[in-house]
Design goal:
The chain is of the alpha/beta class. The protein contains 7 helices and 6 strands.
């Protein structure tokens, strides 16, 4: 299994000395530990990386693991979201920019993506969606995921 902590720590409730040192040094976070333990108890073989935003968590996984992490009717990812107290969005590790945006704004889809170059030398991304976003907070999630300001139409 591929977790940031060892398999023994993922399946038990205690961290070994090596994993505790990683946590203390800041190489892994409490979120990594919590997600690893949850997925280990669900018999899901791991994930690639996590990215935490203010009001959500992006979980990047291999293409074959994404359906297992989401679960039937989203049951597994809903349970993980409930335990973490944040929205969890599962994205394929090798996803394109368009696929990442679609994962956040689902059920809407990104119809067009345009890079806007501003006079001060900065860039922003203009995203045109097929239908309005469900949650206005998704814009902040997109900005945290992509790392640039976003305008949605």
């Amino acid at each position: 299994m591929t977790y940031p902590i060892c398999d023994m720590c993922a399946s038990s409730g205690v961290l070994c000395n090596g994993c505790q040192k990683k946590l203390d040094d800041g190489r892994i976070s409490d979120l990594d530990v919590a997600v690893s333990r949850f997925l280990a108890h669900q018999d899901i073989s791991g994930y690639e990386r996590l990215k935490e935003a203010e009001n959500g968590v992006f979980l990047f996984a291999e293409r074959a693991l994404v359906p297992k992490i989401i679960g039937y009717s989203g049951k597994t990812v809903k349970e993980l979201s409930k335990r973490l107290g944040k929205r969890v969005i599962v994205i394929e590790d090798d996803a394109s920019l368009n696929e990442m945006i679609d994962a956040v704004v689902r059920p809407s889809k990104a119809v067009a993506l345009n890079t806007v170059y501003k006079g001060d030398g900065s860039e922003s991304l203009k995203v045109v969606l097929s239908q309005p976003m469900r949650e206005p907070g998704d814009i902040a999630l997109l900005e945290a995921l992509i790392g640039m300001s976003i305008a949605v139409e």
